[in-house]
Amino acid sequence: MEQFNNRNVSNEYFLVDIEDYPTDGWGKFKRVVKRTFRAELFVGLWVVLREMIKFDIHTVSYPEEKMPIGPRYRAVHEMKRLWESDAERCIGCGLCEKICISNCIRMDTKIDAESRKEVSEYTINLGRCIYCGYCAEVCPELAITHGGEYENASEQREQFIDFKTMLTPLEAMKAGTQLEFEGFGAITPHEDERVKKTPLAY
Amino acid sequence: METAYLIETVIKIVVVLLVFSALAGLGTYFERKVLAFMQRRLGPMNVGPYGLLQVAADGVKLFTKEDVIPQNVVAPIFKIAPVVTAATAFMAAAAIPFLPQFTIFGYTVHPIVADINIGILYILGVMGVGLYGPLLGGMASANKFSLISAARGAAVFISYEVVTGLSILAPIMMVGSLSLIDFNNYQAGGFGDWIIWTQPVAFVLFWIAAFAETGRTPFHLIANDHEIIDGFGTEYSGMRWGLFFIGEYANMFFMSFVIPLLFLGGFGDGSLLGALGLLGKMAFFFFFFLWTRAAWPDVRPDQLMWLCWKVLMPIAVLNILVTAIVLM
Predict the structure, then answer these.
(1) In the predicted model, is pLDDT for residue A2 greater than 60?
(2) pLDDT for the residue numbered B316
(3) Smallest Cβ distance to A48: which of B45, B295, B311?
(4) Residue A12 lies in a domain
(5) In chain A, N or C terminus with fewer CB closer than 10 Å?
């Protein structure tokens, strides 16, 4: 988790010394003798035995243990709520539907009783979705984001894709456990300090 | 007395069959675990405690799977080939003394099915016949990978058999008998009497040939999974494939018994300690079969033939000559 950004594993790369292949019989014979008596085979045996004795097992027994995933991981989508009012953040602008390059988002909107725009239908066809993250990037309200739920095997094709399923439950809002997405389109940390007042004094 | 002998022999055969069929299953479990630990994995963990019941799960799978006979195969040969492998592996066990003789309820039991006076010759011969399994199975399968496997089987066969026979000749000259019991009694004096001290070259040669005989990793050419799928086993399914498997692992166990009996003192003077010693040596040699699989790469068929004919066979002949001169 901590080393997600450091891809420079080592800067001590070096070229391996490869001897020239022997051309004559005497050279081949010398190579055989050298390989036989340098006991290279036993080096190999020792290496695997050492690992067995050390018993430093690297297996993650998956359903019980899970690897940590990065905050920018793009798994099944989530719909967030506003922290202040618990209302849905989605304003039904349709940008995600427009930008979706695999055409998997479909939404319908209507004017509600208070003559505000409201999302009436919202589905994501996860069979088509390529998890590119454009919808989360383009969303002006940080409403649709990617979550960390990558186990999307289900008994019904309709699982996960419904607006109500993707929406953060109200209990989670009450407990204050809604997680903000740190991936595409998210606000960078300490954004408040960097915001400048809009110059309105024309 | 004749009837008692008959009953005893039948019981011994059944016991050997059952014990080594079960051990062949357990052998796969040990192989998976040992290889996994050496590669920093866990191996089977989910069926039973520490994955111990994986063997049973595999058995259920093999027994209940459909026995597919593909369309273009030579059906009779295709069907008989796995039986050849498994049957010869167990037939070879007839001349192997697994434990020293012991007395139970006042009846002396010899844990060897038949103490024939050509024991080692019989074992090597029958194990050699076992190679007909891959050969026939591969040729009858109507599959190009199986055919390559069969051709490799023939190449391996003509290479290692020479080394096996010649390397074992020098100890036979010393002992003057072909029976494994006589071999054991020759070395019964203790640690210093082991044939390995007088015949170290023969020991190494026989051990190398044993790897070719059982088809284990440095010489794992016949069913080389990453080159020719499963070789002769590609077209097999269910219990026919399982018979190949049982034959291979039983062969490994029997080889692990034969090497200590020939070179490392066997069960010694026949005490309980000696019997445990034989089992311990057997366990080491079986473990070594798995160990090399984790550590060593495979050689090519032409490299194996080069090794056997141009390196090991001259050494074996020299070893026989030196032994003969010393014995004279």
Answers:
(1) no
(2) 92
(3) B295
(4) no
(5) C
